[in-house]
Amino acid sequence: MKQSFPSSIPFPNELEQLIEWTNQNGYPISGFFELRAGDKDTMFYWFGFREVDEKLAQFGAGADGSLYCIWDAGDQSFPVVHLGSEGDGIKVLAANFKDFLRLLAIGYGELGFEDLSKPPAGSEPNLIFQNWVKSQFNTNIPTNGSEFITLEENGKCQFANWVDHVCEKYN
Q1: Phi, psi of 71 (to 5 degrees)
Q2: DSSP secondary-structure letter at 36?
Q3: What does the mean pLDDT of the chain come to?
Q4: CA 42 to chain centre
């Protein structure tokens, strides 16, 4: 997976630890999320052009083909973002990878499409994964994604606007 990251996006240590955890514990990690490295064509197939290859690093996917990526926001920040498989669900999920792991551990089925202000409905969290995130990163796991909503509302505009801008520019 590390080789699939563009040189402009640092590979998070927390992602490396998640890969090791998954190698030892298998799936499911949480909901329908799976680790999946991008290939040279992933962003091309989603956007229809290659001009974003250095700005997004895919590390995961949902059951429907949605992409979980780290985005080079251009301001020395690298938030975790979601790109829905049908061009929907374009949003910032977390400011950094540690917060993404905390959000993931809550147990939502489809992070990019769930109402994060409510606890997950119809899915049980992976308690082994939750406990690992808590102990490995000395943090807590909220009962819902409310603490991430402000980021999502503020960051969504920036990321969605960026997606719209590059689509208009290169299409």
Answers
A1: -110, 130
A2: -
A3: 91
A4: 15
